[in-house]
Design brief:
Elements: H1 3-68, H2 71-101
Helix pairs in contact: 1-2
Amino acid sequence: MNESMSSKVNDKYHELNEELKEFFEKVKQERDELKVKLKLTKYEAQDKWDIVEGKWQTFKDKNAVIAKSVGKAGDDLATGFKALGKEIKHAYKDIRAGIDSSKLTK
């Protein structure tokens, strides 16, 4: 192989090597960004879950009280109970939507 061909081969090798390095860095950057986003999504979902769990405990406690209540007081409790239940169901739906929207399988 003459010097000119050797130089061209080395230049091509160097060019390909640089392209691969750049490609690797782009993929690495994308990975790192996704990793951060996934952690944030997880923390956001966990925060929402923790809030809803407090409401769930109240809901559970009210359920026990309503089961023992009768008359007008029981009706008032039932109305509040249903409203809290709807709020919890909506919060669960939001949490699920947040988790589902972050899945990589979409």
